[in-house]
């Protein structure tokens, strides 16, 4: 069948243009990270990678991701179930509220938490009387990361669950299934891949969050420096190889994320075709 | 979606409870502190805080760069969505996966690599320098960083719409003797332009708030290359919490209005597309 833009000239021209622009705009910056990390050879790279400073930054980065992902996974499922399976007043407002972290600058996110839990904040001053300090410490970094990443799982689930409808679950209810069984046997298998995808996005953002975290971190060496903050700190110190070593680690994680995503898409695509 | 029968399903109060608890603690509670902080300011103090000349200069830089970045992404995104949706060629899967790179790559990492490449003695910057084009430490660099971090928006909103377009429409136009360009303008464009606008809007909203990628390449010179996000961070570093809160209130208002406009626009378009089917 003849289609628009199928002429050989148009086709090759557009593909070439797309490849050139993508190379200039995306591939070269990505390659530049690894080039800079290894600019002085393997030894400085390895030295930076295995330094205590980097090890502590990796530890904190993993801690933040490990605490953020489960919280937002559970919240995302409940929210998606709520807004796609029931109608109630305020549903639209709720959905717009959830998009706020997605729309505002990450600096605003950090600022909101700093105002609340900092020394001058009403909650922060109560907590500091109990000797609990959330700001300029890792718990604050976890909290802002939860804020920033909370829409991701829900945003993946909602369109899918809306499209699938609730007929299967309703059939389950009439057959006497309990709520948990309904979720485990019907809903979960249907949303499995979208859920994995949501988790991957949440995880990637939790590992890489910079703006919000930098506001509440206080940059205490060995305590509140995660990988992205370490990248900034070393770069400002003109330690280019050091900065790009941690950047390369983060970029490698990003590439793994992209590969998992591509694999998932290929998988669902194939399932759709065979179904 | 059925509405009446929906309450047949279990878990309404549980999911409502969990959601409201989370939304209150994580989203709403921190916002109360913003209102609290703002209430310490009089109107004239608030006005002075948001109309500081250095801040106004940063509004201009941010808006200009975000506009340039999202327009670039509208064109680039349209091209990429078209190529990925319509053609098969070796390496397509890699190209497709690369479109998501800006979301997967931490913004600070994008920031330092762009700043290094485009600095005057960087790999790309040294090529542009003889041409008189300066990217690093100018608004162009800010726009570049913003464009990089918001690449996926247009591609990923337009691509599925293009994939869903039936081939018959193409064939009808071409059989009737329309040229490729004319057929694209009259057959394809009416279908995809709502998605292009949505994607561009999202890209613009994201660019307005971008911080991590921008601060490294911007040079952050007062009155010239400071973005609004940086101004907020600077106020916080100076312990001027009220001043930061004043800027944040304005930023949040603009972002929310933008988001609302995009959602309404998308909703209208979605209904028009699927309204007749059910």
Automatic annotation (TrEMBL), chain A:
From what superkingdom does this record's organism come? Bacteria
InterPro entries (UniProt xref):
CysW_permease, MetI-like, MetI-like_sf, Sulph_transpt2
Leader sequence segment: none
Taking every annotated instance into account, which residue ranges of this chain make up the domain ABC transmembrane type-1?
58-262
Q: Which PANTHER family match?
A: SULFATE TRANSPORT SYSTEM PERMEASE PROTEIN, SULFATE TRANSPORT SYSTEM PERMEASE PROTEIN CYSW
Supply the NCBIfam families for this chain.
3a0106s02, permease_CysW
User: What function does this protein fulfil?
Assistant: Part of the ABC transporter complex CysAWTP (TC 3.A.1.6.1) involved in sulfate/thiosulfate import. Probably responsible for the translocation of the substrate across the membrane.
Q: Transmembrane stretches, by residue range?
A: 12-38, 58-84, 96-116, 136-154, 194-220, 240-264
- Name this polypeptide is given: Sulfate ABC transporter permease
Question: Which Gene3D superfamilies does the entry mention?
Answer: MetI-like
| Protein's UniProt keywords contain Transferase | no
The places in or outside the cell where this protein is found are: Cell membrane
Q: Which organism is it from?
A: Kushneria pakistanensis
Subunit relationships: The complex is composed of two ATP-binding proteins (CysA), two transmembrane proteins (CysT and CysW) and a solute-binding protein (CysP).
**Keywords, alphabetical:** Membrane, Sulfate transport, Transmembrane, Transmembrane helix, Transport
Q: How does it sit in the membrane?
A: Multi-pass membrane protein
The record's listing under PROSITE patterns reads: ABC_TM1 (PS50928)
Automatic annotation (TrEMBL), chain B:
Residues forming the ABC transmembrane type-1 domain are 59-262
Q: Does the keyword Transit peptide apply?
A: no
**What are the alphabetically sorted keywords of the record?**
Membrane, Sulfate transport, Transmembrane, Transmembrane helix, Transport
Query: Where does this one sit in the cell?
Result: Cell membrane
- Membrane topology annotation: Multi-pass membrane protein
Q: Which residues cross the membrane?
A: 12-35, 63-85, 97-117, 137-155, 192-221, 241-265
Which InterPro entries does UniProt cross-reference here? CysT_permease, MetI-like, MetI-like_sf, Sulph_transpt2
Q: Which domain of life is it from?
A: Bacteria
Enumerate the PROSITE patterns for this protein. Answer: ABC_TM1
Per the similarity annotation, which family is this? Belongs to the binding-protein-dependent transport system permease family. CysTW subfamily.
What does the UniProt record say this protein does? Part of the ABC transporter complex (TC 3.A.1.6.1) involved in sulfate/thiosulfate import.
Q: NCBIfam families, from UniProt?
A: 3a0106s02, permease_CysT
| Assembly description | The complex is composed of two ATP-binding proteins (CysA), two transmembrane proteins (CysT and CysW) and a solute-binding protein (CysP).
> What is the recorded name of this protein?
Sulfate transport system permease protein CysT
Record gene name? cysT
